[in-house]
Amino acid sequence: MRRSLIVLATILLAQLLAVAGLAQQDRLQGRWEGTAKSFQGERPTTVIFKKEADAYTGTITAMQGQVPFKKIKVDGDNVTANTEVDSPQVGTVIINYKFVLHGETLTGEGAVEVGGQTYIFTLDLKRVSTSPGPTEQEERRSTRPLVPQPQQKQSLDYFVGQWAFKWVGRESPLGPGGRREGVTTFTLTPGGKALESRTDGEIRRGELSGERRDQF
Question: What is the pTM of this model?
């Protein structure tokens, strides 16, 4: 009888410890992995949230690597945040995120406005770890020595010269479809602040030619 009471007490204690552990585990904190889908296609994405005192910090993977979240707000199952990404074409871009927590899954969307046009992409994530720390692979990558990569100087001189092209075009009101190939020649204008280009080529039913001036 005494042995049975000891076994029962042990089981109850284990259950209480498990419940306490679940209570201490934050619903949002951890590592979430899945995909982001946009008009450009689908790519893998990782989101990490970490609870620090009464606030959250976090990151999301992007083409530039890990980007930190800013202004993370949690309201029940709803989470909002934003990131700032530097683009060489349009400067700093702000991406606004909205997430909804469903147990061990996290769904949401991101919205970015460029040139007055808003682009939306969706996210579908699952929790893979309750720890916000890096994986072993990421730790190995972070300790790998950085190797300088060659950088292309940003100048108009890069485009000066002849560029050959070849592609198959679709039929449209502008002309017939078919194979197109030719050469575009870029030259600098006096003063070196603009490019002039001339394109000469052939299409299936005739010749292709044109001129344009590009100012930078």
Answer: 0.53
- Name residue 94's amino acid: I
At 97, list the tokens: 């995120």
pLDDT for position 208: 55
Tell me the domain boundaries of the chain. Answer: 27-141, 156-215
Q: Which of 10-19, 75-84, 130-139, 169-178 has the largest mean confidence?
A: 75-84
CATH (residue range 27-141)? 2.40.128.120
| Averaged pLDDT score across all residues of the chain | 77
* Mean pLDDT value across residues 144-154: 61
| Full DSSP string of the chain | -HHHHHHHHHHHHHHHHHHHHHHHS-SS-EEEEEEEEETTEEEEEEEEEEEETTEEEEEEEETTEEEE-EEEEEETTEEEEEEEEEETTTEEEEEEEEEEEETTEEEEEEEEEETTEEEEEEEEEEEEES--SPPHHHHHHHHSPP--------SGGGT-EEEEEEEEEPPBTTB--EEEEEEEEEEEPTTSSEEEEEEEEEETTEEEEEEEEEE-
